[in-house]
């Protein structure tokens, strides 16, 4: 017979409140435990979680005894074991040390008040492991003892030794900053009682060190951690009726379909639907729980708003009634974005312009009851609308990246969500787009900067060039021009050489010449290899080469207006466009101006509202003239001048549970931790995020509070 005649007891588990965890206990730290390593983010999250849970229960008229009936809060589990010299922690050191720091902070707060002296004495006893005579702290590790002693007695930082002990001291400063944040002072006695009696853990008694190590390894190192999508599935389907597994096959089918099209597509789809359907709920609670990073936790935080009269089975209906009917259409959207499809080129164009997340507005417009034709028409409308946004912003040298798209979508989502039909959607989008059309005047003033706006200029010229090719029977070449599949792809060609000496007589001023040659009207798009072969030739010497290329360049040659060019002639007549061959006797500024006006007229036709499916507002001319001009965007400098923000205000932003800090300067710039000032919130946010797309107005929050810069701006705009 193998084994001992006295076999080990199985692992014992029991509940423990914070008071029970500390009262009469002193814990050593197991040799296999890592040292204290919690950073500011982890400490802040625990403090804010505790405070938020408490403030949901506390009311000003409550007595201290009422705290014993507040909703409890569960902190997880700790593993303990025993040796001859006492009790040890095998797992849970980070939480227990942080709780000890919290008790020390509460001790100082309660000791300064007459009405909490008894609580103060009790806290001191717990801090010292139930034995104030021996002064043995609940965590007995000798390395931490001097630090704990100085903190308890209010002394300044000392030479404590290793970085883990320094981190303990810094963690106490973090606890001090976030403890009882935003709670009035009269809540302190109730908070102390609730923390000690209603915040709990589960203590797993491993018995001896060997089994403690075995449990530690099993709980920390084995297996694959659950992903956010796994947790989301578990949350939604766990209350499905009659059986939590009844929808598992449907979920697996959704995940297999979407993830086969694009990596992480299922999670992106769920986020998009939640953003579209619950846009009235803030995507970031300011405590690290964001819709993008932890959708299941975000749903938990907002379940009272999403399911105000919750009954078993409601969570699962979010899958069966909102996600399941829509995911096949979302898979189509992903396919259209990845590869050009006739009828949905707008979606592919948006992808080519770097819009990574373009479907939030589409998902707001789509309803689970829409048939396939309606879904496709709505998707086309939204894609064309976003393409118009990109073009009209680019023509006036304004950013059109993901941050600007997100801000636009945030503003329009409510109106789009209310649009039930395709017509309703066309009206809502047309109303938003109406004020963009004057921006086509930017064709006359925009200049090409190779290291600045090259992607936009290539896109704009490609769309004009391709439209002309298509309308004259040569085929739509837009995809070819923008795919960059042939060697060097397509490149911007200056009609006029960079050598000013070639044109000194007609335009003697070198700076003026440079400005003219970089205007849109002085450019065409050519195949990369063809562009290089033309070198530094004068325009008159390049006309023959242009004749064999795209018609937008070839139209500069007089032979393009000959008797055999019937389709080109009919196109000019049908569209009433003023194409002209190049004439060396015409001064360069005059020629470039006429060519620029031609490009403007072409662009206004390509992106005309009726071609895009948009319905612009109709109103009498007098009313239109009387309508006040919309003010430009509010700036941080304006908010500072109006007293909405103060100079040297601290800002905080969070991404992937990492906190970033910055300072608002008096001139409206934002200085990040690197010391570099940035002119806008978005520029500062993208800098700290290593270039990743971000909307700085919603990324940065004021100090340690919840309000974003965007919310401050909204308050100001409403007041104004």
From TrEMBL:
Residues 621-719 form the RAMA domain. Signal peptide: none annotated. Pfam families: GmrSD_N, RAMA. Residues 29-236 form the GmrSD restriction endonucleases N-terminal domain. PANTHER family: DUF5655 DOMAIN-CONTAINING PROTEIN, SLL5132 PROTEIN. This is DUF262 domain-containing protein. It comes from Paractinoplanes lichenicola.
